[in-house]
Fold:
Amino acid sequence: MKMKLTTLALGALMAAGPVMADLVFPSLSYRTGPYAAGGIPFADGYADYFTMLNERDGGIGGEPIRLVECETGYNTEKGVECYESTKGEGALVYQPLSTGITYQLIPKATADGIPIHTMGYGRTSAANGNVFSNVFNYPANYWNGASGVVNYLLESNGGDINGKKIALVYHNSAYGKEPIRTLEELSKKHGFELKALPVDHPGQEQKSQWLQIRRDRPDYVVIWGWGVMNQVAVQEAANIRFPMENFIGVWWSGAEHDVLSAGDAANGYKAITFHNVGSDFPVFDDIKKHVVDAGKAAGAGDQVGTVLYNRGLYAAMLAAEAVKTAQDMHGVTDITPQQMRDGMEALEITEEKMAALGMPNFGPSFKVSCENHGGPGLVGVNQWDAASKTWSLISDFKPTDGEVIGALVAEDSGAYAAENKIEPNC
Amino acid sequence: MFYREAGDFKISYTQDNQTFPIRFDRYRYYAVMIFAFAVVPFLINDYWANAIMLPFLIYAIAAIGLNILTGYCGQVSLGTGGFMAVGAYACYKLMTAFPDVSMFIHVLLAGGITALVGVLFGLPSLRIKGFYLAVATLAAQFFLVWLFNRVPWFYNYSASGQINAPERDVFGIIITGPNAPAWATYLFCLIFLTLCALIARNLTRGTVGRKWMAIRDMDIAAEIIGVNPLKAKMTAFAVSSFFVGISGALFFAVYLGAVEVGEVFGIQKSFLVLFMVIIGGLGSIFGSFAGAAFLVLLPVVLKVVGADMLGWPTDIVAHLQLVIVGALIIVFLIMEPHGLAQLWRVAKEKLRLWPFPH
Structure:
């Protein structure tokens, strides 16, 4: 019980922390644990873009940016600690890069009036802004991803996948379970046979799942993995000589580190994406000049241009654009989280805007509205070339099955609204 | 000098047998209780409640539960995480099925359900001991997590398999959900911890506890002197699981609010609670508190000192934390196998003799 005195002393220490008037972006990152391989490049990209804005433009609208990094280890308890310790500093938006932590933060952040942006992860039905006032998941979500995969298969099979067998290898968690419902609906609609194979955290044990795949011989395998699970899956697929071009990953299973370890055997592996890949964009010149060459790169600085680095960069860019929108809307530069939320809801990304930012055709152009926090849900497909060690876009960003997804979003968000007695927001 | 028994006369058995026979100890205990109940609720904010006090209080309940089973009755258990999951899911099902019933009752019932499950998984302990029992409880851990992942009824058929705590109250004060005030959640957990600690303390020094300890020290001898091993072991499993179930219910409903069974109640949780019990001290109620406080505070302190004050990279701090916790466990096992509780006991002995040690 003496411990309480120590805690009290510690509290006095922390309460004395300074509160500065600048734009605070917490980065709930994970650079440790079984998911660090994915967490590091994303966190680096997120940090580097803001560092670049600070160095080149002096922040956003003249307001300097302060990035507060907090290590979560992909662990929900640490995520809560990180949220509570950073929210008092005036955090503008949370991007936890973890579906588990997102579920935790949705009610908390909504009660605190802070927006959450879960780009391509989190709770899919948060696309319904009528129910989830403070949660955004533009430009695409899991269900768009699931539908994007099926659409791509339809396209490559001349529009008919009736009777085909598709196996889904998924991370046995909220993240991995998200697409199942959509895939089930789509399997009814298009007549393919779906077989879901769960892989438990952290995902190194997949022998039995791949044995089953070898026995069942599905036409396609779709993977919903993250962290170390991806590398193991690609290697296992290579081991059973599963044709790589029939193996498709979600966007979280399609980065360099996922396929490099399997070497040439990974050639032809595909993954869907909602943003462009490579470092052939003008913005990377600025990052090189102001961040990397100046020795200010986050982490080891060796991730620039990788798929997940680009995703971190893209997330930071969308956040910065939302800040600009909010600053214009409210006429102040030092915005509050509430104003940030308004900015995100009024965000409009156009081709011209992206070109002006040095990121032409980096992602889709879209407009967020009060009802639709999910964006257009355009999904493209990447393919890995093991010889040149690069990902390249083989199918352009195309629309997904809005009819099926819209119904599911309405159903799931409706259930959430009823359970928590939420009034329509718009 | 100021910490001594001289002049502290006991004139009845009740006085002689009280939990804190030394006056100074007793007053310190009252002071801590008053501080915890009457002062902290006025000072506490969201950060303190959610990042430090709630995990400490809840882990302390779990540690008391495991300490009864492992420290007092000598039955090694690696199923704590699984039993916490039972508490959490029982609480969730009750909360959603009976929204108008007070949270207090839900948590108690969740504890009761966990006690039943605990007894069920404790049955093998009558035939197997030591490492083999540890493996049997490990099976409980994996089975329970698998069950809650596998059967959609447990998570009310939600798309993601997550369970979310809806808003519930006690006497009109919101306890769960995002709008619950920090002081209310803190007090709610504190009340449960206080009750659990009092019950545990009084059980362990009465007949039941003595039977547990007899079984722990030598089960054959205990049987010969008339201790029924079936009753003793089953009560230990029941009481232990009851506490662990309460902690699981609070962990889900009050602290986290949303839970994914594999991640939150996995095998790491079983080990964490076991480390708390070992570092705190096997067979000691105070040890459970000390162990829980130690392992909850250490990462936070390291993070504040390393990342916030010294500005080190967050990954270095996270790795350093693993190194430090690991090293501390080894140091404790070698230098002080009886844990923090024994250090505290030694310190008290020294204080009693101070300033004139023999």
